[in-house]
Amino acid sequence: MKRAFLIHSAAVLFLAIPSATPVRAADPTPASYSGDFLTQSTLSGDWGGYRDDLAAKGVTLDVDVTQIGQGVVDGGKSDAWQYGGRGDLTANLDTQKLGLWPGGFATVEIEGNFGNGVNLNTGAIDPVNTNQIFPEPGAQTFAMPQLSFMQFVSPYVGALAGKFDTMSSDENDFAHGKGDTQFMNLAFNINPVALVASPYSALGAGVIVLPTKDPTDAILNFLVIQSTGKASTAGFGHISSNDLTFAGEGRVKTSFFGLTGHQLVGAEYSNKQFKSIDQRLDFILQNRQLARTDGTWAIYYNFDQFLYEIDKHSERGVGLFGRFGAADGDPNFLQYFFSAGVGGKGIIPDRADDQCGLGYYYLDVANPTLSVGTRSFAFLRDEWGFEAYYNLALTPWLIFTPDIQVIGPAQKRQLGSVTIASGGILEGVGTATVVGVRLRMVL
Predict the structure, then answer these.
(1) Which of 366, 393, 410, 433 could form a disulfide with 380 if both were Cys (CB 3.0 to 4.6 A apart)?
(2) How does strand 292-311 pair with strand 261-275?
(3) What is the set of domains in the chain, with CATH numbers?
(4) Which of 301, 293, 381 is nearest to 337 (CA)?
């Protein structure tokens, strides 16, 4: 339903702003919320015709709740089973359909999480439960990560400003999101090397360019945002800060061999001062603080490509996806990254809403070190991971997903719980096997 009113996210870095476009705003026949209980797109349906009427006037309200039960069944830091979830409400407004002025689009997003996840039990850098880390990791929080406005000044160019939910960028047809619709692991939802310079939610402004007036063909975004910010704060307390992130991203639709695909390239630079990953103990003792380094950068690329399509415009079939990213290595210790996999959408007859995916990622870590005299101690190693999932659509609005992940975590060792009194001997952190199930309900 969202795709009937929002642009396919393709903003800067992971900074795309989901919003409607002039092309879709002018569509006289938007997708409908109505239908039978088991075939309608949402649990609550059309609200007696009121919801479709609002959509025709340019106002949409999308709500979903995702619940995940997940356990580390072997390896990692500790055996653990956890249950948690997240709810998300997104409202969109089209000023032209509302009878005001053409080319204006507003987006408001509110979300909150509950329960717990197993992310801290694997020893991995990349969370195995992306859904649980929003709006803020390690906390049960209710927040507004996005309140933004976009105004097109021509069919090709628009300006945008506000507070942005930055996870909408780095879009990929087979591997993208917040862990609630496709893969659960963060490594398959966005490029992790791009996460150091920019916060998840921050104030900013930018420009969007549509070379062909159709965002599904090509889209360019350029944005400047604060390098500080939280989903739970307005951000105006840091409005005078000079800590900024400059980012740009472009995505283009391809048709290799007559099959749908996309190519995406992005880059970012932040002038913020970060803690260095290489520290000397004598410096810390003498200055009573960690050494810092100025600025960081990252570049990234992704593609998706159908190998088989049931129909050219159905978005159903089987295809490949891949990502690559590179960063400076200090302060961003996530220096190089790549992932690749295969995805399927609606490939079983009469099951158009089912999805599946199989992926592998590798994260090259510029290992943080602590130097004491002539010795240096490293804390991490390179990380790899594998994930497979299947979205079983019980109805269009109720999706059940079994999932399995095998992770070679970056953390090498941890302090053993029974060895602290005997000198603090460190125990190794082995390959983690994580299984889980997810239930997503679209209200």
Answers:
(1) 410
(2) antiparallel
(3) 2-442 (2.40.160.180)
(4) 301
DSSP 8-state symbol, 233: S
Would you say 121 and 76 are in contact if contact means Cβ atoms under 8 Å apart? yes
Q: pLDDT at position 2, please?
A: 36
Q: From the CB of residue 299, how many other CB atoms can be counted at a distance below 10 Å?
A: 17
| 36 CB neighbour count, 10 Å cutoff | 8
User: Distance between CA 133 and CA 123 in Å, rounded?
Assistant: 16
| pLDDT tens digits, 64-121 | 999 999 999 999 998 889 999 999 999 999 999 999 999 999 999 999 999 999 999 9
Residues listed for the chain: 443
In angstroms, the Cα distances linking 84 to 138, 178, 197, 267 are: 12, 14, 28, 33
Tell how many helices (H) and how many strands (E) occur in the chain.
3, 21
Paired strand residues for 62: 90
Contact 384, 360 (CB under 8 A): yes
Give the residue carrying structure tokens 């740009």. 248
For residues 236 and 229, give the distance between their C-alpha atoms in angstroms, rounded to a whole number. 9
Backbone angles phi and psi of 115, in degrees to 5: 75, -155
Q: Please report the DSSP string for 323-368 in residue order.
A: EEEEE-SSS--EEEEEEEEEEEES-STT-TT-EEEEEEEEEEE---
Amino acid symbol at 394 = L
Cβ-contact 354, 386 below 8 angstroms? no
Instruction: Give the residue ranges of the chain where pLDDT is below 70.
Output: 1-31, 235-241, 274-292, 369-378, 415-426
**pLDDT tens digit string along 191-235?**
998 887 778 888 999 999 999 988 889 999 999 988 887 777 776
